[in-house]
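Hi support team,

I submitted a single chain yesterday and got back a structure, but I'm not sure I'm reading the C-alpha cell output correctly. Could someone confirm the output below corresponds to the sequence I sent? I've pasted both exactly as they appear in my results page.

Thanks,
R.
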Amino acid sequence: MTSRSTLATKAYRELRGAIASGRLRSGAALLEADIARMLNVSRTPVREALLRLELEGYAQRDESDRLLVRESTRCDISNWFVIRDLMESYAVRLAAERISDEELEELDDLIAEDAEALKEGRVDRLATLNEQVHNLLYRASRNRALLDLVRRLRGRVYGMSAFAVGGAGEQEAFVREHAELARLLREGAGERAAEIVGDHLQRARDLLAQAPRPDDDREPGSLQASGETLDESR
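Hi R., thanks for writing in. Yes, this is the structure output for that exact sequence:
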C-alpha cells in the first residue's frame, strides 16, 4: 500500500513539473479537489503537496486566499540568470577538463538534432534539446554539489523558454552557440567555452525579460488571477 508521504511527494513532483514546464500557467488556480481527481488520490496528499509548493515559492495566495501559480518577476529572472551564469560558467570550465569521449559523442548527436529542429522550425523540440545540452554540460563537470544545486534551482523561472519568445534569429544563434560549445569542449578550451555560455545566457535572459511580467514592486497578494484551474482536460 502506498504511504501518504509517497503520494504527497508524487503530487508535489507532478505539480512542480507542470508549473516549470508551463502546462500550469502563471495565475492558474490550484484547487485541491480538481488536482486530487486528476491525480487519482485523496485530498490529503494534495494538500501537503500544495503547502510545500507555497513554502518553496511556486505558488502564492491572492486577496481572496486562493492559491495560484506564482508568476516570476523581472527581478526573479535577473537574479536567476546571475546565479545560473556563475554555475554554468564554472561547470563548463570543469567539463572542458573532464568530459568523456562518450559524452562528446552524445553532445554531437544533440547538436545534429538541434540543427535539424531549427531547419524544420520545431520550436518545442529546440527547447527540449536546449535543456538536454545544458544538462549534459552540468553532468560532464563531475561535480555532485553543483548538480544538486541545479536540481534545486531548476524551474524557478516558471513556464518560460527563451525559444518561446525569441524569433528565428535568436533561435539560430542559440543553436550556433551550442555547436561552438561542443567544439570548444572537444578542444579543452574551458575559458572560451565559459565566455560563450555567458553570452548565451545573456541572450536568454534578455529575451525572457521582454515578456510581460508583474511589476517588481507589486505586492504578492495583488497578482491578478487568470481564472484558470487545473482539471482533467489539461
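A quick pointer for reading it: The chain has two domains: 4-71+218-222, 74-210. Let us know if anything else looks off.

Best,
Support desk
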